[in-house]
Amino acid sequence: MKESSSIFLATDYSEQVSSAERYAFEFAKETNSLITVIHVFDLPFNMPSDANAYVKETERVRKFEMQKLKLHCEVIMHSLGIKVNEVNWECLVLEGSIAKEISKEVESSQPDLIVIGTHKTKGSISFFENSHSWEIINKTNIPILSVPKDYLIKEINKIVFATEFREGEISGLKYLVDFARKFNSEVIALHINNQSSSSELEKINFQEFKTDILDYINYDKLSFQVIHADNIVGGINDYCITNQVDWLAMAHSKPALLKRLFQSKKSVTKEMILHCEIPLLSLPDYFPGNKKEIDSTYKSTLFKDNVND
């Protein structure tokens, strides 16, 4: 993140995003970042048909939504014991489709981070396929932090970066390490092997990946682990729980890894990851570097973008 960072917080006032709201304000205060709180609203169905009356009513609704959002932010800060002048914050209300309007604003303002709350659909888990969260992830090229409901704010001591040894992940891992330095956090690059390849081949693959990464990233708190699990999601989730991980990070290639993970027919594993009590940081492939730079640095071709969408 830049020295002077900016954070977008998307809210719909629902219970599911309350933890994300609190986390974002605490995070903004801790990092001395500007936080822009965004609410996207719909106009009432019974809007006037007359053009002038329509414009006046639209402005009235917009002012009402702005007042409501400012009051909501003040309530959040009060609940956290934060004075309104202790955080650099602003409000923005937009009318239209949530994902579309937020994506347009992101494209215009280029924040460093977007914070959202997770939502689940009734009866089935389709968080990364049908929710506003996945839409925003899929439409933007900015890191997105999804904070689960009821998440309790705590220090970021340990971060897991789930990797498939893809070229596009490398600059994201470097970005994550640069972020971790600010908090003196440990970073674990974790690979889940769910293939039938021999253990000897896995060791060779892992060692080549590790060597290439360490030539590109220098951080004494960066480590690497490979574990076997029949299911990738279950393996990541179990590791995070067992090792008391604070953040989980993944790079995605619109929408290679993240969406594919949730296409398993085993709904139990979907439930497990969606009830995970840690934030998930989604990083676009090659963020924030460029492919040409990575190609010239990353020597191995064995793992380059080997995801089958």
Order of helices and strands: EHEHEHEHHEEHEHEHEHHEH
Strand portion, in percent? 15-25%
Rg of Cα set = 21 Å
Class based on secondary structure composition and strand pairing: alpha/beta
The average pLDDT value, as a whole number, equals: 80
Number of strands: 10
**Biggest sheet layout:** 10 strands, mixed
Structural features, described:
The protein is an alpha/beta fold and 309 residues long. It has two domains: 1-150, Rossmann fold; 154-309, Rossmann fold. The chain contains eleven helices and ten strands. A ten-stranded mixed beta sheet has the order 3-2-1-4-5-10-9-6-7-8, sandwiched between helices. Helix 7 links the parallel strand 7 (186-193) and strand 8 (222-228). Helix 3 (98-109) packs parallel to helix 5. The longest helix is centred in the N-terminal third of the chain and has 30 residues, at 51-80. It starts with 5 loop residues before the first strand and ends in a 12-residue tail after the last helix.
